[in-house]
Write a structure and sequence with these properties.
Blueprint (H helix, E strand, L loop, with lengths): L12 E5 L2 E9 L4 H5 L4 H5 L4 E6 L12 E6 L2
């Protein structure tokens, strides 16, 4: 979970988050299965609060707390 980052800018781009490299591959929107997995009404409650699907490109360790984010050029 992250906050204060525009995830849309990471779509189809490589980026590092806390030293781990990723590639943003698609948008992740809240969907109906969340109602069964999280709680009834979760999909509606999370509407507009989607995420980003990303491919992990390097090893590393992510931790709780502030981290640096570096955004690379768009993936060709």
């Amino acid at each position: 979970v992250v906050e204060g980052i525009d995830l849309g800018t990471m779509l189809e781009r490589r980026f590092t988050l806390g030293g781990v490299e990723f590639e943003g591959t698609g948008e992740a929107r809240p969907c109906h299965w969340m109602n069964g997995v999280v709680a009834p009404g979760a999909e509606d409650w999370l509407m507009g609060q989607g995420g980003l699907r990303a491919k992990v490109l390097s090893d590393g360790e992510l931790a709780v707390g502030p981290v640096s984010v570096w955004l690379a050029q768009e993936v060709a």
